[in-house]
Write a structure and sequence with these properties.
It is a single chain. With 265 residues, the protein is of the alpha/beta class. The protein has eight helices and seven strands; from the N terminus they run E-H-E-H-E-H-E-H-E-H-E-H-H-H-E. The N and C termini lie far apart (37 Å).
């Protein structure tokens, strides 16, 4: 029971880990004694975040920049991880994209990009990572896959992001399908559906222009039942639960982390 929520010594890969929710989960994992690889499309940002988190938590955070929207990027990440590690204990599929435009003007590019990043990359990265996930997985200590969905995949979004909600609904259902197949291979798959967090993506939607610092997040949080936006502790705590012994009997679930926004809708 003393180690019920421990992930000390685990090795994790977090996609979209250079900022936002991915960075929050990476920070929580590092603070809890895990070794963390982060991947993101922009190499300079990914490298800077890995360096900063390593210094902040006196832990190993390694940058593997890649564009996971296509198979070349996915294969590159798996190749680099395989050269460094014999196994991966935790895969967090967090990389995501959105696109906003009025219904009549919504472009094919906005549909395809979001579906490629949010859905296709989740499936194919998980597929390609199976040998590493299975390598250290046991019946007593399964490997974990955590897919980051969204409350917009459960309820209607308030923004004109017509491909985003459907892509996250697909992630939720894909999670259940993968969970059914992977549980027999000692790999547990679950999803988290976050609500409002102080991220670049939400910042662009609420008019902050992508800024996450020195903006009034409390104004955004006022419309949430909890009266605030989410914090690192909220999202990292749930991810740590799902990655630890405490979450070893939770399979195929989509768990909201939203301050009650779905419950109140």
């Amino acid at each position: 029971m003393q180690d019920l929520f421990s992930i000390k010594g685990k090795v994790a890969l977090i996609t979209g880990g250079s900022r936002g929710i991915g960075e929050m989960i990476a920070a929580g994992f590092l603070a809890s004694g895990a070794k963390v690889y982060i991947s993101a499309r922009k190499a300079d940002v990914c490298n800077e975040t890995a360096k900063r988190l390593s210094e902040l938590y006196d832990a190993k955070c390694i940058s593997i920049p890649a564009n996971l929207a296509d198979m070349a990027g996915i294969d590159a990440v798996v190749k680099q991880i395989s050269e460094k590690e014999d196994k991966i204990d935790i895969l967090v599929n967090n990389a995501g994209a959105s696109w906003g435009a009025p219904l009549e003007e919504f472009p094919e590019m906005g549909w395809d990009k979001v579906m490629d990043v949010n859905v296709k990359s989740v499936f194919f990265l998980t597929q390609k990572m199976l040998p590493l996930l299975e390598a250290g997985a046991t019946h007593e200590d399964p490997a974990r896959v955590i897919n980051i969905g969204s409350v917009d995949g459960i309820k209607s979004p308030s923004f004109e992001t017509f491909s985003y909600g459907p892509s996250k609904a697909a992630v939720h259902h894909l999670t259940r399908i993968l969970a059914n197949h992977l549980v027999k291979r000692n790999i547990i798959c679950n999803a988290i559906a976050p609500g409002p967090f102080p991220t670049w993506m939400l910042s662009t939607g609420v008019g902050f222009g992508g800024k996450t610092d020195d903006v009034d997040w409390s104004a955004v949080g006022k419309s949430n039942p909890r009266g605030r936006v989410g914090t690192m502790e909220d999202i990292a705590g749930l991810a740590i639960f799902l990655s630890s012994r405490a979450g070893a009997y939770t399979v195929g679930e989509v768990i909201t982390c939203d301050g009650g926004s779905v419950a109140a809708s």
